[in-house]
Amino acid sequence: MALFGRKPETNLRRRGDHEPGENGGAAATHRVTLNLAGVNKCAAMLARSRSAQAIEVADMLAAMYLRDWERLSQYWDEQDHDQIEEFLRQICSISPQRWNSWIEHYDRERSQSERMWLRLRRWKKQEAKETPLPPSATLESVLKKAEGLAPFRDRRDGQSIPILTTECVLLCIARSFGSVISRRLAETGLDTSRLELDVLFPKRAPLT
Questions:
Q1: CA distance 42 to 40
Q2: Could you say which of 3, 82, 167, 186 is the most buried, measured as most Cβ atoms within 10 Å of its Cβ?
Q3: Where are the domains of the chain?
Q4: What is the CATH number of domain 31-200?
Q5: Residue 162's beta-bridge partner residues?
Q6: For 110-158, how does the pLDDT look when each residue is reduced to its tens digit (9 = 90+)?
């Protein structure tokens, strides 16, 4: 996949529904940036493609790679990029052919922005007819940790709501000590120290 310069993650998804999966009108516990909203959509698509009943941590990681690799690649040495791709493909049980198909799909979206928005509108209409997939218990735990770690917050109905970013969720996945995915992420050379600094001390706040 072609790598691009890091883009600032500035826009918030304005819906207050719980992400990912927007669990059937449950009370909002966080908001997400536009980048993470796209990752959540991709994770749900990956989960549905294998007829899953919930979105797993592996789905989120694969979606981060497919949708947001140009932002996240900086946390791995360039020489490890092939290794992280192979790792993500394996933990998500996606064949090389299907994996390449997903990559080509999202590469086309990036290069054809107008068509991308048309697709997004069609997906929204389709999703309205589908039952939203909830996060698995493991992913729910990761998101709860991210809510406690997120440095920025927004207001909703008089309450303070944490704003989650892709980096924040990735850090909490990596910090799920004892899990197989956390251990294998460490083996790929993820620079958690740099990631933690960027999460806790971001250079800019998300714009509402």
A1: 5
A2: 167
A3: 31-200
A4: 1.10.1780
A5: 153
A6: 666 555 555 555 555 555 556 789 999 999 999 999 999 999 998 888 8
